[in-house]
Amino acid sequence: MRITLIRTEKPDFTPPRRCSSAGFEAACKEYAETGIIPCREKTMDPRGRSIYVSEERRCLETAAALFGDIALTATPLLNAPPLSAFTDTARELPFSLWRGMAYLQWLFGSKRQQESRTEGRKRAAEVIDRILSARENAIVIADERMLSLLIAELKSRRYQIRRGGLIRIDHLERIIASDNEPHCGGCMYNCRLANPGCMIGRDKAKRAAQKAKLL
Fold first, then answer.
1. CA-CA-CA-CA torsion for 185, 186, 192, 196, nearest 10 degrees?
2. Which of 6, 105, 112, 213 gives the lowest tally of CB atoms within 10 Å of its CB?
């Protein structure tokens, strides 16, 4: 089973350079309701896979740009974890500081934030449970932080993750998560020993067979 995770296209949003706590929360609300900058010709064929997206406008517009008019499942379980100001003040601070401090509070479960990382991880687990119970290949489109929670949950279930970068997830980046078959060669492409799909899996299968003969 394979799950493809895709980050939304770039939002049509420019944050303020500096703002108060009220200004930061107003900007977060505006961001949550914004659309996307038109996709850059990165359409893909979704045939044979179910599509799950958040209810946020930028996710719905990304799905429409990539796949056109197609049936999909929009769920609030995939909505980006909301951010709140880390303190109340009329003093204007850099937007990046507001965002960074709010992220740290979210990460460590501060009561200032509407939802903790642990609570968001539970939503991610519920989405994955739904996909696995349907026994289907799927495409999931969500915000970067929600994707990070999905990746963490999939890794905990021993899924192999194949992606381009190590830290940041680029807009429209496609991350492949595949389950580790019982007789997998152990490579990141989920090859099977019975029918290896790449050189890594084939070579591992050959070495395993040679080792078995020597024992």
1. -60
2. 213
